[in-house]
Amino acid sequence: MKLKFMILTLATAICSTAWAGKVVTDSVESKILGATVKYNVYLPTGFDECNKVYPVVYLLHGLYGSYADWAKQGGMQTVADELIASGEATEMIVIMPNAGHHDIHNVWNGYFNMPGWNYEDFFFQELIPEAESKYRGIGDKMHRAIMGLSMGGGGSTVYAQHHPDMFSSCYAMSAWLDQPVIDKDMKHTKFYHTCVSVQKNSTIAFVQNADAERVKQLQSVKWFFDCGDDDSLMELSVRIHKAMQEKKVKSELRIKNGVHNWEYWHLALRAALPFASRNFAK
């Protein structure tokens, strides 16, 4: 019995080691932003030992956050390792770019183009080409997905709306999808511009105003909205889901027990990576 236990323990250790990906930090020298933009990238087991090309997931952080959040607070490496090892998720590259800072009033935050901060242009013209070339992304719609939390959930949704030819799926967690009211007393801050950009890029209005051609494009993306029942942003996920239903754009909506915190997003990621995997081309 003791021998069997030792063999089982050894086998488990070998299996765990065999499915140990890694997270590395890299950066892009952006001419568009006039800045060095850091990003983390998850590389699956065996990345350095082969020339294989991979599907790519873009995983976006929230307001007050940074590129390091998903690895440090969301446990994404552990989640990805376990899901890939179990077969629930395919081997993939996960790119986590920086789009913010904890000082939201004095440092630019956000995924959209703003005066002096054309982040969406940077994302598509500089980040995607450089990161996917360097880390062997397959580089087409059917092998690329986008997801994120809060501000990053809204950013993910807008990117997939603006560029439906680029993404096979979008998974938005606790997403900041619109900003109906803006505090004009914040006009002297960069956060004011972030709020204005969210309002201008309202994901709900985008769906409501979509013409037949745009609806057809939206239908080519798989959509998933995931929010806690005690999250102040929950109504926005419900509203966009209803707007998509009215336009005959299929989306999935999950309202689960939870609030706007890392416990919720860690669990959401366990659903998000398999969702992306199911919608990659086989």
The helix fraction, in percent, is 40-55%
Q: Biggest β-sheet: count, sense, barrel?
A: 8 strands, mixed
Query: Quick check: average pLDDT?
Result: 93
Overall shape: globular
Report the uncertain regions: 1-17
Q: Write down the secondary-structure element order.
A: HEEEHHEEEHEHEHHHEHEH
User: Taking Cα atoms only, what radius of gyration do you get, to the nearest Å?
Assistant: 19 Å
Strand order of the largest sheet: 1-2-4-3-7-8-9-10
- Terminal CA distance reads 43 Å
Amount of beta strand: 15-25%
- What is the strand tally? 10
Individual helix count: 10
Helix-and-strand structural type: alpha/beta
Describe it for me?
- There is one protein chain.
- This protein is α/β, with parallel strands linked by helices and 282 residues long.
- Helix content is 40%, strand content 20%.
- The protein contains ten helices and ten strands.
- The strands form two sheets. An eight-stranded mixed β-sheet has the order 1-2-4-3-7-8-9-10, with helices on both faces. It has a two-stranded antiparallel ribbon with strand order 5-6.
- The protein is globular, with a radius of gyration of 19 Å.
- The chain starts with a helix and ends with a helix.
